[in-house]
Amino acid sequence: MDLTSPWLILLLPLASAALITLFTLKSPRLSAGISIAAVWGAFAVAASHLPAVLAGHDVLLEGHFTWLAAGGHEFQYGYLVDGLSMIMLLVVTGVGGLIHVYATGYLHGDPGFSRFFACISLFMFSMLGIVMAGNFFQIFIHWELVGVSSYLLIGYYYRKDSAAAASNKAFLTNRVGDFGFMLGILLLYYATRDVVGELGLAAGAGDFRAMAAAVASPGWLEQAAMSVGGGRWVVTNEHFLWVAGALTFMGVMGKSAQFPLHVWLPDAMEGPTPVSALIHAATMVAAGVYLLGRILFVYAPSETALSIVAHVGAFTAFFAATIATTQFDIKRILAFSTLSQLGYMVMAMGLRGTDAAMFHLTTHAFFKALLFLGAGAVIHAVHTNDIREMGGLIRKLPATGWMFVIATLALCGVPPLSGFWSKDGILHLTAHPPEYAHTWLVTLLPTLTAVLTSYYMARLVLLTFFGAPRDRHRFEHAHESPPSMVLPMAALCVLAVIGGPLLLGQDVLEHFRAVTRPAGLPEHEYVHLDRHTVLHALMIFGTGAGLALLAFGLRVIDPARIKAALGPVHRFIDNRWYVDDLYAWIVENLQQNAARLCDAFDRWVIIGALVNGSAWTTRAAGAVVSRVQTGSVRAYVLLFLAGVAALLALHL
Amino acid sequence: MITLQHWLVLSGLVFTLGLCGVMMRRNVILVMMSIEIMLNAANLALVAFNKHLVAAPGAAVPPDGQVLVFFTIAVAAAEVAVALVIAMLLFRRLDTVNVDDVANLRW
Asked: Residues A115-171: pLDDT tens digits?
């Protein structure tokens, strides 16, 4: 096998997970070595194909084998590497590799050290499988696999009740989304199967390119797919596509934590910080956005579907940003910020800005991973997540602190850091939205969200790193992290600074497009460093950060008085808009009662009447009928005679 | 003229006689003998049917009934062999050949 085969990208992390689980659980250093070697190996293989992408090839590499053939259905497993997969491959393995290194320092001496690396290797395998999948069925398998690895890693500290509960919550919430995703896949497969055959595309089941071609084939959309009520209602393929789009979007909402399936992500912060950085900020949660980019051909023909996507994204962005302003847990603030940024990306996809969404995904992976790693370093130093017990830490953790500040500025979109380019690309989209999405949700909320982002991030930075220490004891014991943690952060910091121009120069972004990209998407102009956009970005940042500075830095405004003045509004936001409470109510009242009903039915009807009832009847009948067995031969003869007589009487 | 009815009535009488013996006798050996009588009543009926029904007038007689009787006799012989052994073992174990005393196989 040659050393640049994309199979290696999948196999290296899988082999690493297997090796660690089977052989090296007792030797942490070896486990970490294997895992890090695997992820950087995968990165090297992916990077070796980068020149071809930049040279402008559409499909770089593909290869697959038939995994399952049943009836006329052929399910294939393999890889399809195009521009879109390439950028994700580089982000996942690159950021992943840095976080692997960081984790060796963060988890040093932890009893589950090897287990962590086994799980995270499994995660890398699963995630890379999503990125390289060429068909819906493979992507679904890996979609579930990342769900499992995320579950394992959120519950890493499994002795902690809150961690165990959080991992269950994440898994179950994702199941809701994934169920819709699966139905959507089946519907799409059903709807396009015939036309794929007619077009003469010899493709396995659910192949992306074949489906995209089918959807784009002339006249297909208007074709009647089925008719209900004797031809009175005709369902066309367009309706099918609409429904399938909404269903697959449920998968996106689950994995990318969009409202209303966002509830698991803040709780997922119970996992170790490297996991939060890699899985719950940089890569896995971006899988939904990636999927949208991959299957935008499903949405593109229907403006309604695109409009749903755009509005869900815009609302999530705003909704999460408001909650982030009230939180005190450093990781939770970042988690809500991630929700909010994912909302931006999903919205951009809904506005048909695939380039802008993928651009923001990439830069976000850099600076959000850095923010989480910085938060991890802070937690490592002061042993608390609560920013009310921090303060002034920049004096104790200068390197971490300043890198955190840079990442914050990148997130807030301060020029010329990477976040400025990507975020203003999206804001530019919302300033001139397509007709179908021209509502105040799309035009107004994203800008407001950007202000809120600057506010809550400035608040976080000011409370954590500046001002007077609020907890003397914790402050005295704080110390800078080991090089294994600081160096990966430094690498990410460089990327967070230069990521924007790096990807913008010479239309690099346009090489990172999907082969399944539908025709007719608008070409986007990106932000140029002209005076207007820079002023706009600085104004947004200035408003948000200025407010935070007044409240938490200069203490001109007393936050407590604002809180009191906003009473009910603050309570509403602080309780996360009561979404979690609503779900708890639904589960406790509706679902529990339905479960009780089912339980009673099972207990009394199925077990009581049918299972035990039949046993009881048999036993009772036996008790009566066994009296016939008297042991007396002559009685038997008499009975026999009576029987024969009865039969004769019946027949004659 | 002796007709089929005559034979069947005779067969029925013999069969009933055997049945009464099976039901009323207590001695195992006599019960077995009564069973033999019932079997022979059936044989009689078979032979009679063969003579009066199967054979068309003037044609060569196909021996279906007789063949069946031979089978019955063979089965009866085998049955007697087994039954006698059972009776003998019964006597050795329980010191009795009275069927009413052998009522252990009950609920």
From this structure: 999 999 999 999 999 999 888 899 999 999 999 999 999 989 888 888 899 999 999
Contacts of B107 in chain A (CB under 8 A): 626-627, 629-630
Instruction: Note whether B100 contacts A631, CB cutoff 8 Å.
Output: no
Residue A288 in tokens: 């939904």
CA–CA gap between residue A66 and residue A205 (Å, rounded)? 10
Would an 8 Å CB–CB cutoff place B103 in contact with chain A? yes
- Tokens 């009787």, residue located: B69
Q: Are A273 and A375 in contact (CB under 8 A)?
A: yes
For B33-75, how does the pLDDT look when each residue is reduced to its tens digit (9 = 90+)?
A: 999 999 999 999 999 888 887 655 666 667 788 889 999 999 9
Angstrom distance (rounded) from CA A17 to CA A202: 35
Q: What would the mean pLDDT of A210-222 be, rounded to a whole number?
A: 82
Taking the C-alpha atoms of residue A34 and residue A13, their distance in angstroms, rounded to an integer, is 9
Q: Distance from B86 to chain A by nearest Cα, in Å?
A: 14
For residue A21, give the nearest of A97, A121, A96 by alpha carbon.
A121
Q: Does A626 touch chain B (CB under 8 A)?
A: yes
User: What pLDDT score was predicted for residue B55?
Assistant: 57
Average pLDDT, chain B: 87
In the predicted structure, residue A506 carries a pLDDT above the cut 70 = no
The pLDDT assigned to A601 comes to 94
Single out the residue of A430, A425, A609, A447 nearest to residue A529, CA to CA.
Answer: A425
Is B104 an interface residue toward A (CB < 8 Å)?
A: yes
Any chain A CB within 8 A of the CB of B90?
A: no
Contacts of B103 in chain A (CB under 8 A): 630-633
Q: What is the DSSP letter of A61?
A: E
**Most B CBs within 10 Å: which of A634, A639, A641, as the mutation test of the B interface?**
A634
Task: Tell me what ipTM this predicted complex has.
Answer: 0.80
User: Cis before residue A260, ω within 30 degrees of 0?
Assistant: yes
CB contact (8 A) between residue A634 and residue B102: no
CB A469 within 8 A of CB A392: yes
CA distance A622 to chain B (A): 10
Interface contact A632, partner B, CB < 8 A: yes
B42 interface with A at CB cutoff 8 Å? no
Size of interface A-B (CB pairs under 8 A): 30
Look at residues A377, A373, A370 and name the one whose alpha carbon lies nearest to residue A406.
A370
Q: Which residues contact A423 (CB under 8 A, 6 or more apart)?
A: A344, A360, A413, A450, A537
Facing residues of A65 across strands? A77
Q: How far is CA A413 from CA A327, A427, A543, B33, in A?
A: 22, 11, 13, 113
